[in-house]
Amino acid sequence: MEYNHLLIRYGELVLKGKNKKHFIQKLENNMRKALIDFPNTKIQAKRDHMYILLNGESAEGVSDVCKQVFGIHSFSLALKVENEKEAIKEAALAALEKESGQTFKVTTKRPNKSFPISSQEMNQILGGHLLSNTEGWVVNVHKPDVEVRVEIRKDATYITSSKTAGKGGMPVGTAGKSLLLMSGGIDSPVAGYLAMKRGVELEAIHFHSPPFTSERARQKVEDLAEKLTRFGGKITLHIIPFTEVQQKIHKEMPENYGMTIMRRMMLRISEMVAEKRDILSMITGESLGQVASQTMESMHTINEVTNYPVLRPLISMDKLDIIDISKEIDTYEISIRPYEDCCTIFVPKQPKTKPRREKVNAFESNVDFTEELQRAVDGMETVEFEGSRFSKADVYNDLF
Ligand code: ATP
Ligand code: MG
């Protein structure tokens, strides 16, 4: 007897009171997209659990998907059988036989009170059946290696044995949208991932500077964006031509303030894009003290140009911990491909680690960047990634 269902337990969203329905619907939609490669699966979302009918699709493959999607606390492969004693006995035995260990217990729940046998009686019937049809297993009701759970519901009985942890978090899309400033580096994709974990839907913005940066650098960022779609939903990536702005900074601003001013320009452009796209915040991969632009003074000076919230999920994390996450989410190998992004190329030899607002404002007041910023936004290209179904044909430029 093979597993035919998967039972999903919701994460934190069960605490959400009136919004619960909305959260469950989002999770259902996200699951539907994530299961695109398993077209025969059927999803049934209920108040307390979600069920996936495998319909012949691989239990292992669908389990792997469930490990990636935010909003799932845990899940179990399940056998669904009719509400009939012999069928339940057979399935409980099949479930135990799939497990390894020495001790077990059976826990029956009977929300369907019209089923004629009580939970307590079912525990005894099933326990006896398992003991007399297996070898080496004994009952331990306090700390069993395996708990065979039997849930007799109205429509059918579900039998599960092992439980796998999900990623937790909230379904992507339940916490609104944010604009992720995404370089090709290690940090920003991890920052995006952590924001998604709290239910944030992402749009991403990338600044590139052709011909100083190559097509491959851009490709890196597209590959990273696509990787992130595995955690739920679509990602829209905006690519901004940044060469003109960078050259002007390079030419007309003091070299040691180039980095600070470049970051301010990035935030200004990001705000223009966020405003047009109805996005209320931005995300960066900054971590306090990691590099010159990430000191308290730098953030104070850079952040001055926007009053949008700038979320920094990595702010207190060590680089090694960030690298661990990037390996876990499979972005690390893409991030370390050796193609420079716009910052590395124009980076000053000795960037200011304690840039001051007054100074930068004085420098910027002598040079007008308005037209360059507008041209950068006008030249933006947008690409949409929707899981593995991304195609270049989705590229379009006429958003505004
Ligand atoms: P990352 O690993 O994300 O590149 P980093 O440690 O290299 O980060 P910086 O280069 O100082 O740090 O960049 C800080 C943040 O600024 C990045 O995490 C990202 O959010 C944003 N950023 C930097 N370069 C770009 C770019 N070319 N396009 C979009 N955002 C960028
Ligand atoms: Mg970087």
From TrEMBL:
<comment type="similarity">
    <text>Belongs to the ThiI family.</text>
</comment>
<feature type="binding site">
    <location>
        <begin position="206"/>
        <end position="207"/>
    </location>
    <ligand>
        <name>ATP</name>
    </ligand>
</feature>
<dbReference type="InterPro" id="IPR014729">
    <property type="entry name" value="Rossmann-like_a/b/a_fold"/>
</dbReference>
<dbReference type="InterPro" id="IPR050102">
    <property type="entry name" value="tRNA_sulfurtransferase_ThiI"/>
</dbReference>
<keyword id="KW-0784">Thiamine biosynthesis</keyword>
<keyword id="KW-0808">Transferase</keyword>
<dbReference type="Pfam" id="PF02926">
    <property type="entry name" value="THUMP"/>
</dbReference>
<keyword id="KW-0694">RNA-binding</keyword>
<feature type="binding site">
    <location>
        <position position="285"/>
    </location>
    <ligand>
        <name>ATP</name>
    </ligand>
</feature>
<keyword id="KW-0547">Nucleotide-binding</keyword>
<dbReference type="GO" id="GO:0005829">
    <property type="term" value="C:cytosol"/>
</dbReference>
<dbReference type="GO" id="GO:0140741">
    <property type="term" value="F:tRNA-uracil-4 sulfurtransferase activity"/>
</dbReference>
<dbReference type="Pfam" id="PF02568">
    <property type="entry name" value="ThiI"/>
</dbReference>
<dbReference type="GO" id="GO:0009228">
    <property type="term" value="P:thiamine biosynthetic process"/>
</dbReference>
<dbReference type="Pfam" id="PF22025">
    <property type="entry name" value="ThiI_fer"/>
</dbReference>
<keyword id="KW-0820">tRNA-binding</keyword>
<dbReference type="GO" id="GO:0004810">
    <property type="term" value="F:CCA tRNA nucleotidyltransferase activity"/>
</dbReference>
<dbReference type="GO" id="GO:0000049">
    <property type="term" value="F:tRNA binding"/>
</dbReference>
<keyword id="KW-0963">Cytoplasm</keyword>
<dbReference type="GO" id="GO:0002937">
    <property type="term" value="P:tRNA 4-thiouridine biosynthesis"/>
</dbReference>
<feature type="binding site">
    <location>
        <position position="294"/>
    </location>
    <ligand>
        <name>ATP</name>
    </ligand>
</feature>
<dbReference type="InterPro" id="IPR004114">
    <property type="entry name" value="THUMP_dom"/>
</dbReference>
<dbReference type="GO" id="GO:0009229">
    <property type="term" value="P:thiamine diphosphate biosynthetic process"/>
</dbReference>
<comment type="pathway">
    <text>Cofactor biosynthesis; thiamine diphosphate biosynthesis.</text>
</comment>
<dbReference type="GO" id="GO:0052837">
    <property type="term" value="P:thiazole biosynthetic process"/>
</dbReference>
<dbReference type="InterPro" id="IPR003720">
    <property type="entry name" value="tRNA_STrfase"/>
</dbReference>
<comment type="function">
    <text>Catalyzes the ATP-dependent transfer of a sulfur to tRNA to produce 4-thiouridine in position 8 of tRNAs, which functions as a near-UV photosensor. Also catalyzes the transfer of sulfur to the sulfur carrier protein ThiS, forming ThiS-thiocarboxylate. This is a step in the synthesis of thiazole, in the thiamine biosynthesis pathway. The sulfur is donated as persulfide by IscS.</text>
</comment>
<feature type="domain" description="THUMP">
    <location>
        <begin position="60"/>
        <end position="163"/>
    </location>
</feature>
<keyword id="KW-0067">ATP-binding</keyword>
<dbReference type="InterPro" id="IPR020536">
    <property type="entry name" value="ThiI_AANH"/>
</dbReference>
<feature type="binding site">
    <location>
        <begin position="181"/>
        <end position="182"/>
    </location>
    <ligand>
        <name>ATP</name>
    </ligand>
</feature>
<dbReference type="InterPro" id="IPR054173">
    <property type="entry name" value="ThiI_fer"/>
</dbReference>
<dbReference type="GO" id="GO:0005524">
    <property type="term" value="F:ATP binding"/>
</dbReference>
<feature type="binding site">
    <location>
        <position position="263"/>
    </location>
    <ligand>
        <name>ATP</name>
    </ligand>
</feature>
<dbReference type="InterPro" id="IPR049962">
    <property type="entry name" value="THUMP_ThiI"/>
</dbReference>
<protein>
    <recommendedName>
        <fullName>Probable tRNA sulfurtransferase</fullName>
        <ecNumber>2.8.1.4</ecNumber>
    </recommendedName>
</protein>
<dbReference type="InterPro" id="IPR049961">
    <property type="entry name" value="ThiI_N"/>
</dbReference>
